[in-house]
Amino acid sequence: MNEKIKPYDDKMQKSYQNLLTEFGSIRAGRANPHVLDQIRVDYYGSPMPIQQVANVSVPEPRMIQIQPWEASMVKTIEKAILTSDLGLNPTNDGKAIRLIFPELTEERRKSLSKDVKKKGEAAKVAVRNIRRDGNDAMKKQGKAEGISEDGIKDLQTEIQKLTDKYIVMIDDAVEEKTKEIMTV
To answer: Facing residues of 41 across strands?
Structure first.
């Protein structure tokens, strides 16, 4: 890969990874510990991810169990989950917290599918913006460095190929996540 193209590939890769991270926080019908990735708990004055203050496991397909390493953290973790936008009610037995994932209704599944498609479109827009920035930069650099018109066109073609590759990857990720959500 051309060194001039590499930064744009990195940016597109980051956009794609960000989309996958967002998809991880969308809950489908079964329990996925990644829904907790965005939640932070106060641990001696600093916000920490739940995974760094507790053991998170999935003992059953629709349940997540959170076992804090310190008993004093149970209430803090429970409060953080309640104030998050997960829409789950944690049950607490004093030592561990359990999150039961209810079956998703058909209406909720369709709503989540729309969200997935919106996030996918946003990622595609980000990739296309990176392409545009790359094309503009190639024109400016080409003129400044005395690269021929054909050389500039070749670089822009490479950026377009990268864009196409990431668009296909995003479409595949959206399709896979939608299928996961719609599976009963």
So the answer is: 48
Give the tens place of pLDDT for each residue, 27-52. 666 677 877 888 889 888 889 898 88
Split at pLDDT 50, 70, 90, the class of 160 is: very high
CA 97-103-35 angle, 5° bins: 50
C-alpha 98 chain-centroid distance: 24
Cβ–Cβ under 8 Å, residues 82 and 89: yes
Residue with tokens 């595949």: 172
How high is the pLDDT of residue 27?
A: 66
Torsion over CA: 138, 143, 148, 153 (sign): positive
Q: How many whole angstroms separate alpha carbon 55 and alpha carbon 35?
A: 14
Under 8 Å between Cβ of 123 and 18: yes
Q: How many whole angstroms separate alpha carbon 132 and alpha carbon 159?
A: 9
SS3 state at 171: helix
* Residues 45, 92: Cα–Cα separation, whole Å: 23
* Cα–Cα dist 147/79, whole Å: 60
